[in-house]
Amino acid sequence: MMTKALLLILVLLLCSRLSAAEGPEPPAKPIKIDRSYLKGKNRPVRIATVCQARLTKDFFDETLFRLDKAAASQPDIVCLPEIFSRRGAETVPGPTTRRLSQWARLHDCYVICAMKTRIGKAKYNSAVVIDRKGKIIGRFDKIRPTEGELKGGVVPGDPNPPVFQTDFGKIGVQICFDVNWRDAWAGMVERGAEIIFWPSAYPADRQLSALAWMNKVYVVSSTMSQFAKIYDITGDTIAQTGQYQQWTSATISLDKKLFEIDFHISKMRKLQAKYVQGQRVNVQWIPSSDWLTIESLDPSLSVDDLIAEYELTPLGPYHARCEKAQAEARKKFEASGGKKNTKKK
Q1: Residue-range domains of the chain with CATH
Q2: What is the dihedral of CA 78, 165, 34, 298, to 10 degrees?
């Protein structure tokens, strides 16, 4: 017959297992964080991301342990790797989103919670977006599941994915295999996304770097293996995880803009003389690409203010202006009796 002492031990062990399944319970009181910097015209945002490299078990708890470490940077938003818990499909809300909603409330932080979801009989590879108050504000479903996922019953998501409004700007999400199709990335940027989060199984470093600079958007990866990164609008790496720290963070400026050097050199000399020495503006020259970036460090000053003051043209509008001039020149040539170049190569 089982003794009372043994029965008590078994009950405690069972309770411990059930608690571990949802991860360590956070403290009840939210952490007070000064977010007044979000009111500045230069629009700084703190981002953190996590990699699951070297984890072999207890994926939920150990990933949240790393997330807690990343929280030391007091991020505005964090991203978790693709299907980070390795659990089966859940309804939303459900056990995983409830636990991450608690974490979001505690740390006054948005969370990109990548997980398998279920609606009725349909299964999706998803990323649930949770706001600072722990409220679910939306969900992205992987548009391009792999052949293996499709055989396992995963349903492809909407090819025209939503963008999500936060208190610092609009964001988008893609997941893993989605990196191989560019249209959705460009579409989200056209709809206002300034940061695209990418939960994944692997890094896809070259592709993400290219997508960042092609779309002039910040990209944040969160991976199961190797490393996770935060990419600048130039495609350069801002921050990266590694063998000594499997989480990383950075403060980015959503007010940063990219410019062609053409027509800007003399204007930039004047801008630098006025603003850079006082450390109000950061100008980065990228001579290998004939580019430069301008970033305001002053909460009272925006890059749009500088564009107006010095009559600058950001890279995107500059290319659009060139396309318009090219089309007009082509039309003028054809109207004067010139022929279209229709010769087949």
Answers
A1: 29-253 (3.60.110.10), 257-333 (3.30.70)
A2: 100
